[in-house]
UniProtKB/TrEMBL annotation:
Catalyzed reaction equations: [(1->4)-alpha-D-glucosyl](n) + phosphate = [(1->4)-alpha-D-glucosyl](n-1) + alpha-D-glucose 1-phosphate
Name the record gives this protein: Alpha-1,4 glucan phosphorylase
Enzyme Commission number(s): 2.4.1.1
PROSITE patterns associated with the record: PHOSPHORYLASE (PS00102)
CDD domains linked: GT35_Glycogen_Phosphorylase (cd04300)
One GO BP: glycogen catabolic process
Subunit note: Homodimer; enzymatically active. Interacts with PPP1R3B; recruits the phosphatase PP1 which dephosphorylates and inactivates PYGL/glycogen phosphorylase.
Gene Ontology cellular component list: cytoplasm
Biological role: Allosteric enzyme that catalyzes the rate-limiting step in glycogen catabolism, the phosphorolytic cleavage of glycogen to produce glucose-1-phosphate, and plays a central role in maintaining cellular and organismal glucose homeostasis.
Keywords assigned by UniProt, alphabetized: Allosteric enzyme, Carbohydrate metabolism, Glycogen metabolism, Glycosyltransferase, Phosphoprotein, Pyridoxal phosphate, Transferase
Family annotation (InterPro entries): Glycg_phsphrylas, Glyco_trans_35, Pyridoxal_P_attach_site
Amino acid sequence: AGRRPVEEDRNVATPRDYYFALAHTVRDHLVGRWIRTQQYYYEKDPKRIYYLSLEFYMGRTLQNTMINLGLQNACDEAIYQLGLDMEELEEIEEDAGLGNGGLGRLAACFLDSMATLGLAAYGYGIRYEYGIFNQKIRDGWQVEEADDWLRHGNPWEKARPEYMLPVHFYGRVEHAATGIKWVDTQVVLALPYDTPVPGYMNNTVNTMRLWSARAPNDFNLRDFNVGDYIQAVLDRNLAENISRVLYPNDNFFEGKELRLKQEYFVVAATLQDIIRRFKASKFGSTESVRTVFDSFPDQVAIQLNDTHPAMAIPELMRIFVDIEKLPWNKAWDITKRTFAYTNHTVLPEALERWPVDLVEKLLPRHLQIIYEINQRHLDHIAFLFPNDVDRLRRMSLIEEGGTKRINMAHLCIVGSHAVNGVAKIHSEIVKTQVFEDFAALEPEKFQNKTNGITPRRWLLLCNPGLAELIAEKIGEDYVRDLSQLTKLHKFVDDDLFIREVAKVKQENKVKFAQYLEKEYKVKINPSSMFDVHVKRIHEYKRQLMNCLHIVTMYNRKPPRTPRGQAAPGYHMAKMIIKLINAVAHVVNNDPVVGSKLKVIFLENYRVSLAEKVIPATDLSEQISTAGTEASGTGNMKFMLNGALTIGTMDGANVEMAEEAGEENLFIFGMRVEDVTELDKEGYHAQEYYNRLPELKQAIDQIRSGFFSPKEPDLFKDVVNMLFHHDRFKVFADYEAYVKCQEKVSELYLNSKAWTKMVIRNIAAAGKFSSDRTIKEYARDIWHVEPSDLKIPTISIP
């Protein structure tokens, strides 16, 4: 009875069983190097780099590990011998989707580069039980599903209960004779899970340590409320909810208590761990007790990935002053020399501003410390600028008026020795506009570190055909030194190379078209242009402008060139998704258009899907309003994988144009200065609508229900926004965008000229390796030297 049918017999291995078997085999090759690396760090005691982030968007691990360990060919062969399909096995692994987009993926690329450069680096974050939601499209609308990524277990992590640590919340502050005490707190335990981070072919394996929340065993049972023992045990969930789910907000601040708990949870556990490791180190233990922390900034660098881990600043002060009994000034000097802060956005709605009342309830001692930091900071400003009360208001960590709030960016700037933006134009805006008062005070504190991407995942792993073709021409060293791609410039007129580059792109497109047909039941013509816009949906990224162009092309039928269109996944974002799907429905079912124009909304965009779509893309859409996209990193991935870029002079697009030559990108639209000018004059959407017949036609169709005949006023909110409160000025760039797209279509018809431009772009992509970015952080901020030493592996005789 109850016997399962034979194909599910526990003696018959499923593809998932084979995936886990392979994962465990590859993991066995990691552990020796992992242990050896950590042992080597203990012996040599180098300065440690701690990258603190609420997000690590890692994607899948198996193939990346095989590549970095140099095991891919051996594994491919073994799997083939067993009569299995390696790609099928790789598809079984769940993405580790512990991030929203750019910020979380940057952290993942940085971990890869830090290991490859031999830095003693650690990524610290939260082990979310549920990552970024799975996106389903039902009847054109976005529906979210929980991402239960740990359902089948995770072979790449190792729980480390021996390093479990307590984290305190709530309570009150007591002024005792021995000093200040934070008492009557609620305790949550932080259980670390370690994931190995292998460098590329250098035997270095670093650690990403993610904390999981656990209730202590006496949770809710201390107050002898034995009567409700069952309820007390059930209430353990309240504590453990801290690491339950990733907040899916990209570039938007939502001041929820659970989110603040998450931010403090990762910070408190991590700092205890850092101090434990510092005290246990050979270097630290030789010092006399009195001066034990003097060497702290020489042994520890902490990078704050945006303001999300900003509570680390008052927390380290609390440890130094309350627990280690350091005098305030010494503690503050050490703290400032330890921390550095990376700013990721200039959008005001994204800046974290926590209500004072909430912080007072959750972290009363930290609020006192923040007030003390602010008092000393403002005293200093008042000394330098007497009688300038408005400057004091602007520079305060506390925002008065209405509900009092803590400006976390101000806390980070004041508490760090270095502040950086993530592209030249962004760092300039940070210095001259967003934080101009702070930059005037300490100009040397503000730096630029242009983002990068790891060429291991974003070329070798996702585009082996192109990677091999490049290696044939310039050797394999470029994988660790991407600047060597400039050597490709001498092949830009090589007819054979041009044909080979075009052939690799065509193969990638055919493969992606087959994937779309299999997974989404849509047929696209692989010889059409693949015009791709993949990003989180946000008004500043202007998916709507792309949508208006699609409508315009549809209205001009028959279109000049065939093209396929792909896009990914607050009220407006959901309406934008619905509109794109509604337009797609009309366009894709119009017999006159046929296969000439297809619009596809790729649902559930994620790292593993990016690895498929990026190598197949012809045209990369980077069309944010100038001055709004801090950097962008998708733009770099497309450039490296042989797509051309249509974009504004925003973020890293500016530097891409600088590297490749502006004539090798399709640059259009307002520059930052033009946007500023238009803000001064006042942006009047109606004027563009009146002046541009094709824009008027497209908007009238959307407004009248041409794309939603059953609900004619479905998109009235979208149209109303475009006319009356479009901060991102879609209409102002529409005409330039459409004209630029015509130039794109014209060039695409000349396959050879197109491919030559592609080669020029690939040859100019070297700057955008995260290896280069990390070398700059190491030298300018962390003051450590990258090492190309290959850690010796233990040889068994």
